[in-house]
Structure formats: structure tokens, C-alpha cells
Amino acid sequence: MTLTIELEPDVEAGLARQAATQGEDTAAYALRVLSEIARHEGGILSREAPRVSMTPAERVARLDSITRIVPGSKGISDEHLRREYMYADRDDRQR
After folding, report:
1. Rounded mean pLDDT of the chain?
2. Helix-strand-coil split of the chain, %, nearest 5
3. What are the distances in angstroms from CA 65 to CA 9, 26, 43, 68, 86?
4. Among 2, 25, 78, 82, which one is least packed by beta carbons within 10 Å?
């Protein structure tokens, strides 16, 4: 399938920058990112609500799968999921 899209100049520039950081030309990079999004289980673009009854392990796996499609992402570390990390910028006196 051939797809032609008109991008705003700032979007095109951002896409070109991201492609360069990955060592790819812009067209190849755009094709790879769109393919990853389209193949993502559950459809990242889906309006379907996430299951509420996921186990903690399923939640972590879901977060990891979502972050893997973000260009340049290395996923979410255990440190980033700790409560202390999430609220590190809050003043202790507010609690």
C-alpha cells in the first residue's frame, strides 16, 4: 500500500530529527514507527478501555509494551515505578 500524507513543517522537522537520532532516513523511520503502532496488540490507537482487573505483572507488561513503541524509549525502570520517585518533588510538609 502506498500512503501519501501532508505533514506540517514542524511535524516533518521533528520526524526528521527523530529519524536522525535512530540513524534512519525519515521515510524508513516513519514506516517503522507506523508499522509498530499498527501491529501493537490491543491497538494503541484503539478507543477500547483497558481492563481494570489486570494483575500487577500484566500492568507492568502492558506499560513495557506501550513504551517500546515510543521511539528512543528504553522502557520504564523499576525505580520510576516506586512511589518515592513519583513524589520526589513534593515537599514532605504537604503530607
Report:
1. 76
2. 55, 0, 45
3. 30, 24, 11, 5, 21
4. 2
